[in-house]
């Protein structure tokens, strides 16, 4: 069995070589000729999986993407050909929620505000949005939840309209899929009109898909007023982004919100489990045995430590300023894709075990640290 896997997927050899012959490919440039003799195709988000790529392959029996986003997959085409397909829902929810938390804590420090007094709108309350909402609830930050599809389904909770949330929240974080048609489209959800209507000093965070915000309109607003605080992990037209926008963005990163070792590893592992199930064999491997122990894995908090010091604690594990610096220093010379490919190791909060006699330990456990 020939297993073709994106070269940016970790743990592929350990998990898939017992199942077949593994060959790696560059996700951005995979051709129909390269894909022609694959039995299994494992991708990440940058490969367009469609008729053009797969029509000459008559033996393909399984396609998986190690991502939650599926806007790069022509599911109708796979269905018509009867090729089973799976994605990896939730694999990187913790990673993206921690990216957003780290970014909010950086801005709180830079702009001298307390996160605990802010209202955070979460637009798209699925795996990532809900994970972020739970983390913010754990530390007492108020959230306004926007998810019309969930509201329409009758899911319990207090749902806000987007317009209400844009007006009332101090921080607005987008976690919707890219949907280009139907009644809940998200392309340019934050469009020129809504961008123009935003009050000064709002913080806008996008770690969903670049097309969710009209980047040209955002640049125009900043060029005229420069009064929004922006955190952008995703950009329109990646990898050929509107580089000028970076000059008006507080934190700019190369679509690495979900790229913790755990998040990417979980994505690969979920495909391994799905393929084993498809083949009718037992999944023997476990993810935890494949992940290395981090150098910093234990810390004792003093009894007097308070949540006012949360920024320093979270940034010990992940400080998004590291990734902002990488993008600003090296985008022009290295290019967007190469920075993503060579992304330095990043771990999740759960890799740090906190000890000590401190009253905030249970809130920190709910935030994601191990206790
Ligand atoms: N930056 C990154 O590295 C990164 C990592 C993972 C996922 N993503 C992106 O984030 C998206 C969300 O991921 P997820 O795992 O939470 O997906 P999910 O499918 O679990 O949740 C998406 C939620 O958005 C809601 N939604 C759909 N249309 C909406 C609209 N018009 N307005 C408001 N809400 C709407 C859905 O009802 C759903 O609850 C993915 O589709 C992907 O595009 C980016
Ligand atoms: O949709 C997703 O899961 C994420 O956007 C994913 O992390 C994208 O990253 P890539 O697959 O391009 O590495």
From TrEMBL:
List of residues binding substrate: 45, 67
Catalytic residues as annotated in Swiss-Prot or TrEMBL: 209, 238, 255
Residue ranges annotated for the D-isomer specific 2-hydroxyacid dehydrogenase NAD-binding domain, each copy included: 111-246
Highest rank taxon of the organism: Bacteria
UniProt-annotated location(s): Cytoplasm
EC number: 1.1.1.290
Family matches, as InterPro entries: D-isomer_2-hydroxyacid_DH, D-isomer_DH_CS, D-isomer_DH_NAD-bd, Erythronate-4-P_DHase, Erythronate-4-P_DHase_dimer, NAD(P)-bd_dom_sf, PdxB_dimer_sf
Enzymatic class: oxidoreductase
Binding site for NAD(+): 147, 207-209, 233, 258
Gene3D superfamilies assigned to the protein according to its UniProt record, in alphabetical order: 3.30.1370.170, NAD(P)-binding Rossmann-like Domain (3.40.50.720)
Pfam families the record matches: 2-Hacid_dh_C (PF02826), DUF3410 (PF11890)
Similarity remark: Belongs to the D-isomer specific 2-hydroxyacid dehydrogenase family. PdxB subfamily.
Full protein name: Erythronate-4-phosphate dehydrogenase
Gene: pdxB
